[in-house]
Amino acid sequence: MAVAEIVGGPAAFVVGTILGLALVAALVYLYTMLSFAPTLVVLERIGVMAAITRSFRLIKNDFWRVFGIRLLAVVIAGVISGAVSVPFSLVGQVMLAVGESGTMMVAALVLITVGGAIGQIITAPFDAGVVVLLYADRRIRAEAFDLVLRTGATGTVATTDDLWLPQPR
Questions:
Q1: How far apart are CA 116 and CA 88, in angstroms?
Q2: CB 135 within 8 A of CB 36
Q3: Other beta carbons less than 10 A from residue 168's beta carbon
Q4: Residue 104: which residues within 8 A CB-CB, separation 6 or more?
Q5: How far is it, in rounded angstroms, from Cα 37 to Cα 77?
Q6: Which of 8, 92, 112, 149 has the most CB atoms less than 10 A away?
Q7: Positions of the chain with pLDDT lower than 50, given as ranges
Q8: What is the pTM for the complete model shown?
């Protein structure tokens, strides 16, 4: 509003567009850099702030690769989720268009919601698997984690759960 009052509407549009694009870029950056934080909390048993710091450290030198794989996974999951939920949505939309009673409208909305939930149920494990594989890949490349996993495969440790914990340097 202040920019529009000072220099006019077109300048306000340009400033708003630039700020909007900067916000989108910042959110994409944070989405990528924080991708491993939930995985780190679970697998490495560390706190939230430590997980955020470690996620930044792991992704820092390979941002574009992680971003590209995450983007591809989101697109694939979206297509699969959409393909699963479209039949439910179409039937629900037809029910909304022809239904005159409140019961029919509620049933249509429930059907649409169930279709979306089924799509999410199918794609959530895929997305989680992509994140964990990316995390393991980053640790293998950055910390020679493959050698740690190899020791677990030989049976020389009591439990393999502790292999995911970072080794002291």
A1: 8
A2: yes
A3: 4
A4: 95, 96, 98
A5: 21
A6: 92
A7: none
A8: 0.76
